[in-house]
From TrEMBL:
A family per Pfam: OB_ChsH2_C
Species of origin: Streptomyces hyaluromycini
Name of the protein described by the UniProt record: Bifunctional MaoC family dehydratase N-terminal/OB-fold nucleic acid binding domain-containing protein
Taxonomic lineage: Bacteria, Bacillati, Actinomycetota, Actinomycetes, Kitasatosporales
Disordered: region residues: 317-338
FAS1-like dehydratase domain boundaries: 27-145
Signal sequence coordinates: none
PANTHER family linked: BLR3430 PROTEIN (PTHR34075:SF5)
SUPFAM superfamilies referenced in this protein's UniProt entry, alphabetically: Nucleic acid-binding proteins (SSF50249), Thioesterase/thiol ester dehydrase-isomerase (SSF54637)
Sequence ranges of Gly residues compositional bias: 317-326
Domain ChsH2 C-terminal OB-fold: 225-287
Length: 338
């Protein structure tokens, strides 16, 4: 999408021609400066300054632009030059836009009853710039706000209109689990290829996901037991849409009921997504992922009976070797996913 250098220079020159052209001419505020709009603004902003209340109220200076806004129906004062310039940029591949900054200058406070008028000019167009977002042009407009003939303030607004960079990006890294104080122990176990289940130290109830307290008795004391890693598919969904960039649909997400009785959500692997069924026996497998963000270990659940029936398709984890305590040894570094 990036225009070649010569064309870009040509584009730059064509854009420069818009400097000084009016973007809006002889616009008028849709409402005079008024107390209800001032009050709504102050409520939205949480501004309780007494200067904006009472019989001698003035408008907050930062409302300057609000008095010139066209609302959903727009303004008739627009000249078309600004839209024309944006179209030129769109056609050159600079199809994205982001507001970068706004500067205002206040010459005198606005008061209820003031009727504002304004003119907007395309003040400047930068040369071609390359930013993190992409390559494009900064466009600055300046709106002069008047009451009668008196200039009361100016409003400068700058946008970057650009061709987004990285059209063909690498797939994003796999999302990381959110590790916090409550569940850190679970993820520490996973890093050691152990599936740890929380157990209430008072009533013995097992729980997952990890929580500070026991749902059964309210006790905050707990220890852990290591799961055998054996379980069955309690329920599942097959993700087709919407696609998440780090995953290739369709894939099965299972709610796995572990032999110990607690349930956890994970991927079901080792079986085509449309062969996943409620009641399917599975066993945990620890997978290591390497990407730009580093190494990550995640527990997934491999369909056990398919594995046993077909023999392992990969080179890892011979069927007979998957004893309940031996699950960690069964996970190859890159077990083939079906
Ligand atoms: Zn308990």
């Amino acid at each position: 999408m990036r225009p070649p250098a010569d064309d870009a220079d040509d584009l730059g020159a064509r854009l420069k021609a818009y400097e000084g052209q009016p973007a809006a001419r002889a616009g008028t505020g849709k409402d005079p400066v008024n107390l209800p709009m001032i009050r709504h603004w102050c409520e939205a902003m949480g501004d309780t300054d007494p200067a904006y209340e009472g019989p001698d109220a003035v408008a907050p200076p930062t409302m300057l632009q609000a008095w010139t806004m066209g609302g959903l129906s727009g303004h008739t004062a627009r000249t078309g030059a600004y839209d024309e310039m944006l179209t030129l940029l769109d056609e050159a591949g600079c199809t994205s836009i982001v507001a970068t900054d706004c500067e205002q200058e206040y010459l005198r406070p606005l008061r209820p009853g003031d009727e504002v008028a304004f003119d907007t000019v395309i003040e400047s167009v930068s040369g071609r710039k390359t930013t993190k977002l992409g390559t494009g042009y900064f466009v600055t407009t300046r709106t002069d706000v008047r009451v009668g003939r008196e200039l009361v303030g100016t409003h400068r607004f700058r946008v970057l209109k650009y061709a987004p960079s990285g059209g063909r990006r690498k797939p994003p890294p796999r999302p990381r689990p959110v590790v916090n104080r409550d569940n850190a122990g679970f993820w520490e176990g996973v890093a050691e290829e152990r599936l740890l289940v929380q157990r209430c130290a008072d009533c013995g109830t097992l729980r997952h996901p990890w929580l500070p307290g026991c749902n059964a008795c309210g006790s905050l004391d707990w220890d852990t037991v290591e799961s055998s890693g054996e379980g069955t598919v309690y329920s599942y969904v097959v993700m087709h849409h919407p696609p998440f960039p780090a995953f290739a649909p369709p894939y099965a997400v299972g709610l796995i009921e572990l032999a110990e009785g607690v349930r956890m959500v994970s991927n079901v692997v080792g079986v085509p997504y449309d062969k996943v069924r409620i009641g399917l026996p599975v066993r945990v497998e620890f997978r290591r992922y390497e990407d730009a963000e580093g190494a990550l270990t995640l527990p997934v659940f491999r369909a056990a009976d398919v594995l046993d029936a077909l023999g392992d398709r990969g080179a890892t984890g011979a069927p007979g070797g998957l004893g309940s305590a031996g699950a960690p040894g069964a996970s190859g570094a890159s077990g083939g996913e079906v």
